[in-house]
Amino acid sequence: MVPVNTRVRPSHALLVALLIVAPAAAQVATPTSEKVDYDAIYKIKEEGFQRSQVMNTASWLTDVYGPRLTGSPSFKAAADWAVTRLTEWGATNPRIESWGTFGRGWVNERFAATVVSGAQPWTITGVPKAWTPGIEGTVTADVVFAPMENDADLEKWKGKLAGKVVLPMPVREVKAHFEAEATRMTDADLDKLSTFEPTAGPRRNYNMSAIGFMAKRMAFLKAEGVLAVFEPGRGDGGTLFVQQGGAYNPKSQSGFMRFPAEVAPQVVIAAEHYGRLVRTLEKKVPVSVEITVRNTFTEDQQGLNILAELPGTDKADEVVMLGAHFDAWHGGTGATDNAAGSAVMLEALRILKASGVKLRRTVRLGLWGGEEQGLIGSREYVKATFADRANMQVKPAHGKITGYFNVDNGTGAIRGVYLQGNEAIAALFSSWMQPFDNLGMKTLTIQNTSGTDHLSFDAVGIPGFQFIQDEVEYDTRTHHSNMDVWERLQTGDMMKNAVIVASFVYHAANRDQALPRKPLPKAQPSQTPPAAPARQTTQN
Questions:
Q1: Which of 283, 312, 425, 448 sits at 20 to 30 Å (Cα–Cα) from 135?
Q2: What global pTM score does this model have?
Q3: Do 129 and 218 belong to one domain?
């Protein structure tokens, strides 16, 4: 069965309970002597829970503007909308900044595929891969099952595939779902996360031979003149995980995968539909497909970030930043990855402004482009503004930023903070978490987590943090899939997250001292992050 959406809508009684955080004075000293401003937290909770706009913001980003692939018109349109909304909310200098030429923009305008010969006609569910070409007009072509897993397979099929729709991969087993796809972190999970074990933690293991053969197969299929390539989706039950099948910048590629300069049209289709096609062909029943793939490229697109400020007072020349990546893959509408984070950060800024709390340091919002291609937007912003990690020559602004807070692990409720190895900040964050114990935020881990924009800041010695979040359906259903849509967002979690982020940013902005820092890292001249790395948690 398809899981039932359980988005939480807090009742009035719950809201009242959440707002009653302390009967004492505004400034309360904790056992660690870190001051917690409960008056400000009351105002932040009252604004964030009683007048939340986070889900409406998320709907604009997803339902109206769609997936926001970097370099696409939908990204620019959504960025323009965000600037307008930030202006309405009273933010200072909302703006779009370019970080340079990104490469080719790409949009899928139409896809349709129908089996028109075989036992009976039926419609195929699929999503074209980003940065792959389309097909001129609507074409009917034969389907060929041609599994290719090595060089001998390429030789076997040479000269036999021109004008065909090719199925080049084996059929994937589709298993029943006996366990729920959505999960929340248990106390045991959180306890384990908070415990340091030097030998624990996953390590990335890439099959470079298989990655290299993928590129060779792409080049072969293009050279053979195939009409289109169908691949079985990694998901099932209607969920398709889809990213790219070609290069956004063929002349300058990063990461492990090197795409050929030209590739054939590629479509990820439902695993069940792929299997049906293969099983029909294996019975010697010919299959033809009527297919439309209309994709549009636009050259020399600029990479864009969105920025805005709330000015500080006596420490206005110092900065606290909050941010999330704004771009998303195109299969769905980019809801949990990462309209969720973008909407939470926009809402946190709105809360800080609307609640009337006073800020000593300037608060700056950054919504990043190009994250899915290797954290490019945040990395280029940090390089231009604070320091170049290749040589670690810091700019004056490096000493003026106290920290950066990021949300990019889906819609799930915040349960704590990854400390990125910053031992000195643990007691401070522990104090800031205490008012949110009743929201389930209670865990700090010295571990680091990868694949989000906080790494761009951490890499140059700026305290950068990603929050621990409940998984919900992130890795099982929504991350980079066609099911990454507004309905998968959890209302209560989104409201909680915006309030927690606003409180952390407020306290960072109003401390007498800047946040503690780790030692300045060494230069990293040869490090370029791979495109779209999988999210991982590791020991530091």
A1: 283
A2: 0.91
A3: yes
